[in-house]
Structures are given as structure tokens and as C-alpha cells.
Amino acid sequence: MFPKTGRPVDEVLEELEARKANDVDWRGGKVFSLAYDAGDEIHDLAVEASSRYLSTNALNPMAFPSIGRMQSEVVGMMADLLNGGPEASGFMTTGGTESILMAVKAAKMRFKAERRITAPEMVLPTTAHAAFTKGAEYFGVRAIRVPVGDDYRADPDAMAAAINDNTVLVVASAPQYPQGVIDPVEAIAALAEERGINCHVDGCMGGVTLPMLERLGYPIPPFDFRVPGVTSMSVDLHKYGYTAKGASVILHRNKVLRKYQTFTTDDWLGGFYASSGVLGTKSGGPIAGAWAVLQHVGEEGYLRLTKAARTAAEELVAGLRAEPGVEVLGEPEATLVAFTVTDADTFAVGNALFARGWFCDQQGPPPSLHCTVNAVHAEKGSIAGFLEALRESLAEVREAATKGEQAPYASLE
Ligand SMILES: *Cc1c(COP(=O)(O)O)cnc(C)c1O
Known about the structure:
Layout: H1 9-18, H2 40-53, H3 65-81, E1 89-93, H4 96-115, E2 121-125, H5 130-139, E3 142-146, H6 156-162, E4 167-173, H7 185-195, E5 198-202, H8 206-215, E6 232-236, E7 248-252, H9 255-258, E8 263-265, E9 273-275, H10 285-321, E10 326-328, E11 336-341, H11 346-355, E12 361-363, E13 368-372, H12 375-379, H13 382-402
Parallel strand pairs: 2-3, 2-4, 4-5, 5-6
Antiparallel strand pairs: 1-7, 6-7, 8-9, 10-11, 11-13, 12-13
Helix pairs in contact: 2-10, 3-10, 4-5, 8-10, 10-13, 11-13
The site of pyridoxal-5'-phosphate has 13 residues, from α4.
């Protein structure tokens, strides 16, 4: 019901706090999904910086040059990190989904203009993020999903076989979300280059992490604009950039490719109207938050946070591999780890973990639990406790199964 009379500020804020009671405790180190945390200082800065610009409007950088400048500096920082060179250009978006939507839209518009393709298709591995399918639905692009190899990496030969004259886009992920492995970007980008079509590398998870792992000496295959044929990349700052939610970057190799993402019209009585992404009115908050956190953390800080997250991920993988009946999927190359249970219901184990306060994504096929390991897990020393809770959960689910009890299953509610 619409409130008839207003309520005091204190009372409203108190209720907001109270309503968090049943949410996951994402800063406590027991949540392996959805949220990222690099400690109080970075968190407080992100909150403070974004709140100072929350009600400004990024729709018009002429009115808010401060936001225009922060956006182009953030895009420039990411272009630098991903070796885009002086030609690379892009925009900030509100998240990985919007960045990916824009990559799909740009590919469709480019080949409508350049080749008069009216029934566009894109070819992508089964492991590419659901946002590509969303883009396909929104923009009328047919999505052709191609099975991946036994190592969960994309299969470039199978992708090549799915390409035809209507194909406008091929996709690689670095790393892909479900098993955390890096697709063979060079081979996939080569398919695009040969045919003069677009190749998007989804670096939503890896766009900050992989450049840091590379600097730390980890063997990371080429995945960014150094690879010929890559035309665009997405990277989420609200994930491993540890900034406030609502911040991602879409980068194009050059301005010519970028122009196909933007929208302009004067076909209404409100005059010339232009926007870079899906939104019209758009908060300047996440842009300011991202700019501030990148400035504060810097390469030194991201090296430290990445090392911490990767080390925790390695500890998790080693612990899972030592656990009978547990199988790690693929060879996790960054900070995402998925595992399955071979002798009990995997999702029942996930629910038993949740009952103990530990939250992982439940995914499939194959039925598996997914852990997004980040700095908070290193900071809180979470891995040992997680493995202990996993052992208890496995025992509980195995015992229930021998007793013939119905195991709890994942729910939509
Ligand atoms: C998170 C993610 C996305 C989608 O990003 P949102 O910020 O959730 O919209 C896309 N691709 C990958 C690999 C991701 O991890």
C-alpha cells in the first residue's frame, strides 16, 4: 500500500537494516557467489565515492563533465590493462550483462550496415554466459551454442563448423564462468579474423584477475587485445575490481567498431538524443565508485588481492581433490572453482552447506557447486572451515541416502 503519511528517517533506516537479517553474510567469508569483498577500507571508499555521485546523471556528460571524465579515465585504465593500444575505446556499463548485450548489438548493427545481413547469427561455446542468450533474444540474433571439450574449454574446430555467411560474432571467455577455464582465445579470434567478423572476449571475471596473474608469473595464455581478431572485451569492475555494484566496461578495438554500439535518434519531439548503452538516465555513482577504487588500489593493490584470491582458490582445489567422492571440474585457471559429488546428490550437499551458513552456486549440467573465490576468503581464512563443513555435509547427505530419506533439492523460491 502507498504510505499515506511519511515515517521518520531513523525508523526507515532501522527497518532497512533489520530486513538484512536473512540475507547471506557476504562480508563474512562464507559466501562464494554474487558478492566480492576486499576489506573495510576499499569497501568504505566504494560506498563513500559512489554515494557522492549517486543522484547525478551520466546520461549527459555535458551537464556532468566530472562523470564523463571519470568514465573515460576508467575505460582508459582498462584499455591499458588489456593492451588495447591508443585506438581502443569503450564505455562504462552497469554490469557484465549490459556489456555483453552491447557487444551483441554492435556485431548485429555492424554487419547489417556492412554486409546487409538481416538474419544474424552468433557462434558461442555452451559455457559462455547466459547474458549472450539474453542478447540474442533482445536483438534478434540466432545463438548457436557449440559443445566444449572434456576440459570444458571451447572447441574452435566445432565452432568453425557452425559458422556460416550469417555469422556476425564468435565468443570466447577468459575465464568462462561455470568451470573457470580459459577458452583458446587465439584460435577463436583467428576464426573471426579470417572471415572479417567480430570476436568478443568475455573478461567479466578475468579482466582484472588475468593481467595480474600474468604479472605474478602464472602461465596465462594470450586472451586480450594482443590477440589479432579480438574486436571487443567486457570486464566487470564490480567483481574482481572490488568496487560497488553497477560497474563494468565494454572495450572495442577502435572507435569505428564502437560506433555500432551507440544509439542516436531525433525522431521524436524531444530533439537529438544519444546514449551509449541500454539505460537512459544512469547513476554516476557506480562510475565514481569504480574510479575511486581503481585509483586507491592501483596495480600494487590488485597484485596483492589477486595473489590472495588465487592462493585461496588453490587451497580449495587441493582440499577438494583430497576429498573422496569429490571431483573438481577441469583445471581452474583463475579464481573460479566448480566441483561435483560422485557418490551423493550434489545439490543436496549444496543445501546442507547452506544450512551450515555456506553459500555456493548450484549449477549444471553436470550438477555441480560453484565457488567464486575472492580476497575475502583469504582475509577470513575461509577455506579450512569450508572444507570442514563440506565433510559434514557429505556425511549427512550420504547417511540420509542410505536411510532412504528424500534429499532436499534446489528450489526456485
Ligand atoms: C558475471 C558474469 C557475467 C554477467 O555479468 P553481470 O555483472 O552479472 O551482469 C558475464 N560473463 C561472465 C563470465 C561473468 O562471470
